[in-house]
Amino acid sequence: MRNLLLLAALFHATWFGFISFTWTINHLVAAVIGIIVTIAVGLTLLLREDHLPRVIVANMAGLIALSGWGGWLAIQLLDDGPVVHLYALYLPLASAVVFVVAAFLSTTPVNRSPGA
């Protein structure tokens, strides 16, 4: 699962960079692709991962990514002018950071002594 989360982080960072710096793809298509990949990663993690803290943090990253890509989608559908909303611009990058944090969470439980 660590590799899946690192790939999700890589996808969100590179997809955001591709869209932001090349501008050759329609933003509606890019946002829909980002949303589909985010949902696929979240469902895979929910079905296959058994370490609850990693699932929680990775799904928080997924919600951040969905908010960001959904913001891109809403901006393109609702606003015709050249408007840039910073929350939609930087949330996919923030989700990439949270995906990396989720990938490196320890999977071993912490052993505590009974008297502590």
Automatic annotation (TrEMBL):
Transmembrane regions listed in the UniProt entry: 26-47, 56-75, 87-105
UniProt entry keywords in alphabetical sequence: Membrane, Transmembrane, Transmembrane helix
Keyword set includes Transmembrane: yes
Annotated protein name in UniProt: Uncharacterized protein
